[in-house]
Amino acid sequence: MELDDLIVYHRGNFRPYSDARVGLMTHAFLYGTGCFEGIRAFWNDDAEQLYVFEPTAHYRRLAASAKVLLMDLPTTPAGLSDITAELCRRNGFRSDVYIRPVVYKSEETFGVRLDDLAHDLFIVAFPNSKYLDTTEGITACVSSWRRLDDNAAPPRAKITGSYVNPALAKSEARLNGFDEALVLTHDGSVSEASAANLFIVRHGSVVTPPATDNNLEGITRRVIATLIRRELSLPLVERQIDRSELYSADELIMCGTGVGVAWVRSVDHRLVGDGTAGNVVRSLSRLYDDVTRGLNTTFGTELLPVYDAERMPSYTLPCAEELQPV
Prior knowledge:
By secondary structure, the protein is of the alpha+beta class. Helices cover 24% and strands 26% of the residues. Strand 11 and strand 12 form a beta hairpin.
């Protein structure tokens, strides 16, 4: 499917992609003053159903990001979830889909500020099953670029302009022959990958950095944490991680909306474990696939069905567990 074949949601209406225009002087284009989300919808062949994964949680996070930039959403997270399902229906998707909502400073003007500027929202959805080929594991390096700090450009908010930071790290890694970059905080603790959260497995426990180490409060991260505790029955600790722990880990796992669940084969040319996918990541990959496609409904995730929604209401069980510091 080509971009011009898509129907998008822009300025309160569904319209062809080619009719959705943003001016050259749009403030968000000039200064990065926008916020975005990445949402996935997963196709279930047997049920012939497309499920939008955790839409309400994503739109709540978008609302929180927008607030940082003095913006708000045009309707509730539930209302935007319904619009997203309708957008997928209008496009007739019958495969996995990536959905990109953006709220942005839409005024065509110049001047570095956030106040007294109009804002708007658009949503684009397109077929997509792979963000990064992870079949053979990912080769990673620790980037020389440090993660932005909460007091500079808060990583809790998915601000478009802030993504220059992980883009620098990712391209540094790629140009040096690696697949992915791992970034550190300014005090040298592990933060996250360029666009994914991290878990390490060591001595039968799983460890992940806290959000206070300048990483995104990931929705996939929260779901994976629930699976680790409730299905794998492994202890999960949220604490600072030193760089050298990456080299001594038994497994290093990345997760996020785009990448799903992926394993890291090596860091800075050092094999992680024995350089193969470990038991934890293999189990998590299977569980995550079952949860996102509606094959396992026991973990409190929200799946919004796109087709025949009136006969197949979305289920919402008690929320997946929040990560708690240990």
